Amino acid sequence: xxxxxxxxxxxxxxxxxxxxxxxxxxxxxxxxxxxxxxxxxxxxxxxxxxxxxxxxxxxxxxxxxxxxxxxxxxxxxxxxxxxxxxxxxxxxxxxxxxxxxxxxxxxxxxxxxxxxxxxxxxxxxxxxxxxxxxxxxxxxxxxxxxxxxxxxxxxxxxxxxxxxxxxxxxxxxxxxxxxxxxxxxxxxxxxxxxxxxxxxxxxxxxxxxxxxxxxxxxxxxxxxxxxxxxxxxxxxxxxxxxxxxxxxxxxxxxxxxxxxxxxxxxxxxxxxxxxxxxxxxxxxxxxxxxxxxxxxxxxxxxxxxxxxxxxxxxxxxxxxxxxxxxxxxxxxxxxxxxxxxxxxxxxxxxxxxxxxxxxxxxxxxxxxxxxxxxxxxxxxxxxxxxxxxxxxxxxxxxxxxxxxxxxxxxxxxxxxxxxxxxxxxxxxxxxxxxxxxxxxxxxxxxxxxxxxxxxxxxxxxxxxxxxxxxxxxxxxxxxxxxxxxxxxxxxxxxxxxxxxxxxxxxxxxxxxxxxxxxxxxxxxxxxxxxxxxxxxxxxxxxxxxxxxxxxxxxxx
Length: 556
What we know:
mainly alpha, membrane, transmembrane helix, transmembrane
């Protein structure tokens, strides 16, 4: 059998199975739309049907394009990495990032000036808040993780991802989940679980997409031409596998009917709370930490041109972090109906987490040994290094806040909001920005970014915004906690709740202004990356030495 025949046969099986599954999905979605009495389900059923129909046509077109391309490849052709789906992931990351930051800053201004809710259901705080968290965590962060994991696993394994359609199914399936979740929030569809608001049918769809994602990643590792599995891939794999387990267990529900948007959680009472925060904390631990540590372990050495400081420390970092993180969730439930031993267990493991977290931070920072001078001239590397510093700060603050005595003051206050955003903006967003700045020239085959000066502007504007945000929330949160626990001489509360809210208002304005700075920085990045993809270079930047295009394997 010739190479051409083999390629076409394999593509035929791959493509038609996927197209057949989508065809079944179209009929099921249309049947649901016809039989449901829930108008909100009707909207989502038609969105699913439309997306599946577009997917079928896309598969048919890609099938012929892929067959023609592979038939022309010589038998001894070098590895042809699948870069197109990564390009799409980069574009989606930038789009959803700006959208999520805009939603977040809108919420910040609503808290400072509540009249901005406009008494419109689609625009009120209760519906925009989950839209913001899902947009920045799952839409922006998730697309960054999918794009970088696809890039890193191919490069470090010297192997193309399996299947021509499976990676695209992961990408477009994930975008469909985001659209279903976002439109659901705006229409009031939610199961009211933190970081897990989408209803049962969206959860099932995400599970299908995520399983395919896992198989694509594992398939690339299986096909690898490198005998060693680079440490970044271990972090990515832990992120993918653990998130699958967390998502399935936390979203075990009983739908009211197969044509209704409403469902009821399988767990109740304190069990529901424990499962929720086992999920919630480990979504932070494995989605927002382990996955982005995979980014750190590839892009920091690559950008610095230096090997990882200690590969042995990176392995210790991985296994200790993976083992300890999964037990720390109960620290979200101090002074609740959760048994005291479980609260203490969560606190203990949270304190222990400080050690592996800082081991990873030290490993990342010390990777720059012999290359510290590059921080003066490379704002992308500066952004990556500052993200590691924020990672260290957040992973120290988190264990401190998990101590019961500290938690009694900090919990339910704005201090928690400041802590979350020091990690989300300083660590997750900055390391994502650094990865995007690295990948766009590599993917579009450009010698350098459009403007390093714009990267520097982005860095300083966003850093200033983060500092305004987190410091205002630290002060606000501690003031809030102290006012809540203040008693007069007769043993009554010294301040009413509305007085504490009034005291927060100046800090809410500072936060909103800080968020606006961060949003402006992201818009600068979007413009810079767009010009880079076009192949433009600012005249003064042409005098700089061009950035090197990466070799297939990370510096190890």
